[in-house]
Amino acid sequence: MTAHRDLRVLARFLSFTLFAVVCTIGLQIKDGAFVAELATIYPDEAPHYVNGLLIADYIRDGLGQSPIAFAKAFFLSFPKVSIGHWPPMFYMLEAAWMLVVSQSKLAALIFSGLISAVLAGVIGSMVGRRTGIVSGILVVLFYVLTPLVRNSAAAVMVDLFIALVEFAATLALARYVMSPSWRWSAGFGLIASVAILSKGNGLALALLPPLALLLTNRFDLVLRADFWVSVPIVAILCGPWYVATYNLASDGWVYQPGASYMMQSLLANSNACILLFGIAGCLLAAYGFACSFVGRYDVAENTLVRSLVALILAIFLFQILVPSGLDPRYVLGFFPPFAILAVLGIRELSADIASLFGSNHSRRARGLIVVILALAVIVPKLASFATVAQKPTLGMKEAANIVTDDHSNPNRTVLITSDAIGEGAFVVEMAQHLDKRARYVIARGSKLLASANFLMEDYVARFSDASGVAKEVEKLGIRFVVIDTSKNGFRFKHSQDLLAAARQDGWALVGQFPHARYDGETLVYELKPARVPTVAEQAAIGCVWARPSTAISNAGSVQLKKPMDTCS
Q1: Euclidean distance between CA atoms 18 and 136, whole angstroms
Q2: Is the pTM for the entire model greater than 0.70?
Q3: Which one, of 311, 316, 373, 327, lies nearest residue 164 by Cα?
Q4: Which of 310, 331, 490, 499 could form a disulfide with 211 if both were Cys (CB 3.0 to 4.6 A apart)?
Q5: How far is 222 from 80, CA to CA, in rounded Å?
Q6: Exposed, middle or buried by CB within 10 Å (0-12, 13-18, 19+), for 252?
Q7: 353 CB neighbour count, 10 Å cutoff
Q8: pLDDT by residue (tens digit) across 518-543?
């Protein structure tokens, strides 16, 4: 009987997941995900792709070599490596996918879409088991059409993966609360470690057990030895990484911790809830939670509901306490618990209202009320579902095609200047030409010609004018220069000086590509230097400029450094 039930659960999950896969890939196509460059919505998209590519390349070609030495050489060709700022687990899974399927950005986008579809399948199957297959289908459609989910699924991002793993950890913890055993405690610890080793906001799961025990009134569990099994698992697996990389990760914090940030975060995350579900959806979820206090659910359902609310509170509190940012995508983990709670709220509220009509009309009235409540959630969101814009294109694909057209030329040096979006998009497009077996040395203007932190704050230009920039480019023997003239890409002094240098020195304009759904254009210049840079000179091209302590006019002589070492 148990085996038959498990097969039905698996079949239901696979059915909803397959439905979600079809919907998600269809929306990826509609939204232009497969034709646009990566990073045109989220700047982080490029490093998330490149980090996976680094690990896949190392497994395929570098085993036996020093990982650090391999990463340094890889960085010269694809200067968007950021493992350290983010933990490695997601990239290890991404690399495994790349090795089995393909290292192309198309494969990476499908990987992202599948993660989103699996989360949809879990939500749909859980809803379907409680309120019927039609409800499950509607929830899956609501999920895949939600703009925040849709944008994330059309990009190579970690946030939906974190939402999936956080939800899985919550289910494991709920099972432990219902049936305490070391297996479920260890399962929670292992799943939580996957989230924590994928992105820092997975640490929100540290708040989940105390909140779950508080809401379920099961503080007696802390007296059990098996309750604490998850603690050493997480500490051993995750602790060393976070101790070693704290300074790198905190460099990406946009805000300073404190009361001001906490108030901003409280408002931003409250608005994110409304953005995802609307006011009606949030109120119905609250009703679904409230029903757990009046004996509406059995023990298992009651424990699940309280654990789902504990997950919402854990994410909420973590985002308030840790100043990692205010982007709504950081709370995508709200979606699974809110969706299930809202559906339960519709089920229970419709029953309560229908009972007012008497037993002769309650069934028909209940069905009508369910429809009305569902429409109250769905209808206000229809406009946002229908107005999701296609991903912009920046001309970086065409620029990379020009740069790699003659891969027999021994000078494979290129300088790209833009913001994080444009530079990342170009690096990813260059990676699509790996089949030519001709690695290029790519310099990012924001690193070679300027200095700034991970978020491009504390910006300092390396040269005082276009002449200094021109001399440096020609001294290094750089063959191609790619310039993004969009408002964001062109706001930096070094970008403006580089374009001025190209015009005053008469560099050959070999490509000019207007952006689509994005301001500006991408320009490609070929310098045709008289000599090919030596290996040491090419290494210097890919280095990072060290911020000077002297005036900007003397800055050009300051040494360069690699991200993990000096150029010497």
Answers
A1: 13
A2: yes
A3: 311
A4: 310
A5: 44
A6: middle
A7: 17
A8: 889 999 999 988 888 887 777 777 77
